[in-house]
Structure formats: structure tokens, C-alpha cells
């Protein structure tokens, strides 16, 4: 019985680690910051399967190259190279895990939610997430492929 329990614990540990794996992402123009890691949870494989009626946790670790009093997030669904604005509950970066004012050379963990509404169509697209500083320059910009599903 002990080998089975050990195997089960190892399998559960591997599954939990898979949920927290950093994503492969495309940097789409981070000018005033550099992305260290992007996590979407749960998203164990790519493209991320986003289930309608579910909310996903977003965690971006980045280093700032500038000072800024605040920051604002903008999220888009990119289809056929067209950016369609995607509302998020809290666009203010200072209310999303970032200690403001933002200081040059410091690392930050940006935390937010990505709600997937039931009325969204089932479709493959690219999620594009930007965080801009006071001068509308990008602290970070990343893209990942997703598939919205029922």
C-alpha cells in the first residue's frame, strides 16, 4: 500500500506543478519594463482552454525600467490581426498587486482576473495583455494563444 500512496502523492505533486508552470508567451512591445514570468491559472497546456463562466488568475512578474505614479491594464482578444477590447474587472495596476509609485529597477507581481463570460463565442484567439505607465508606454505587453470553450 505504501508504494501506491507514494506514487499517488508524486502524481498529485506533478499535477499541481503543471498548473503553476510559467507560460510561453510572446513579448509584444514591453518598453518600460521587462517580463520575467507570465502565469495563467489554471492553464496546464497551451493553447489555454478558457471555459465559459470561469475566471482565471493572471500573475505577471516584471521589472520596471522607469518610475511611474500609476499603471493601467488593457486587454484585447486578437482575431485576424484585429485587437478587440476585452473588459477586465480592475484595470488599475496599483490595485492589482503593484505597490505604487512604481520605481525603476524594482520587480513587481501584477495580479488580476480574466473572467470568461458565458455569452462569449467558442473560438480560438490570441489574448493580448498590456500594462501602461503614466506616459502610456508599455511596462509590459504579452500574448498567448487561447481557446474559449463551453
Automatic annotation (TrEMBL):
Q: Which GO terms describe its cellular component?
A: extracellular region
Lineage: superkingdom? Eukaryota
Record-linked InterPro entries: Ig_E-set (IPR014756), ML_dom (IPR003172), ML_Npc2-like (IPR033916), NPC2-like (IPR039670)
Quote the Pfam families the UniProt record gives: E1_DerP2_DerF2 (PF02221)
Give GO MF terms, alphabetically.
Answer: cholesterol binding
- Keywords of this entry: Disulfide bond, Secreted, Signal
Recorded hits in PANTHER family, A to Z, give:
NIEMANN PICK TYPE C2 PROTEIN NPC2-RELATED, NPC INTRACELLULAR CHOLESTEROL TRANSPORTER 2
What is the recorded name of this protein? NPC intracellular cholesterol transporter 2
Q: What is the lineage of its organism?
A: Eukaryota, Metazoa, Chordata, Craniata, Vertebrata
Amino acid at each position: 500500500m505504501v508504494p501506491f500512496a507514494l506514487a499517488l502523492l508524486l502524481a498529485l505533486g506533478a499535477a499541481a506543478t503543471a498548473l503553476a508552470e510559467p507560460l510561453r508567451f510572446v513579448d509584444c512591445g514591453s518598453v518600460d519594463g521587462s517580463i520575467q514570468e507570465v502565469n495563467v491559472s489554471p492553464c496546464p497546456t497551451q493553447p489555454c482552454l478558457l471555459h465559459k463562466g470561469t475566471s482565471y488568475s493572471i500573475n505577471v512578474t516584471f521589472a520596471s525600467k522607469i518610475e511611474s505614479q500609476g499603471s493601467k491594464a488593457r486587454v484585447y482578444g486578437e482575431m485576424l490581426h484585429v485587437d478587440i477590447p476585452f473588459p477586465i474587472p480592475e484595470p488599475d495596476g496599483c490595485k492589482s498587486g503593484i505597490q505604487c509609485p512604481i520605481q525603476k529597477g524594482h520587480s513587481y507581481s501584477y495580479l488580476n482576473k480574466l473572467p470568461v463570460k458565458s455569452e462569449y463565442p467558442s473560438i480560438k484567439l490570441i489574448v493580448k495583455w498590456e500594462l501602461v505607465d503614466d506616459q502610456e508606454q508599455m511596462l509590459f505587453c504579452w500574448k498567448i494563444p487561447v481557446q474559449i470553450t463551453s
